[in-house]
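Hey, resending since the last one bounced:
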Amino acid sequence: MELIKAIHVLTALFSIGGFITRGLLMLRDSPLLRCGWSRIAPHVNDSVLLIAGITLMIQTQQYPTTQPWLLVKMVALVIYIGLGTVAFRFGKTKTIRTIAWVCAIVVFFYIISVAHAHRALLFQ
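The C-alpha cells again:
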C-alpha cells in the first residue's frame, strides 16, 4: 500500500507541475503547447494518478459513500478537470483561459488539503 500511496502522491505532483507549466506556455503563446509530449504526457500521468487513487480507495476500504472527505475530493476533481478544459481547450479568450487556469490551481490545492486532513472542509 505504501508504494501505491507514493505513486499517487508523486503523480499528483507531476500533474500540478505539468499543469502549471502548460499554463505558463499558454500565457506566452508558446508553440511547445502544441507538441506531442505536452498533449499526451498529462493524460498518461493523470491515468496513473487515477488508477493509484482507486487502488488506494479499494485497499483502505474508504469509499465516497462512507467518507465525506473522499466524496468532496472527487467532486473537486471533476471541477478541476472542468476548469482545465476551459483553460486549455474551450476558453474563448486568454483572459478566460487564465482565470480558469488560476482557479484550477486553487482547486487542486484544495484537493490536496482535503486529502491530507481527511476533512471535507478546511475549517472543520
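The chain has a mean pLDDT of 94.

Sorry for the duplicate.
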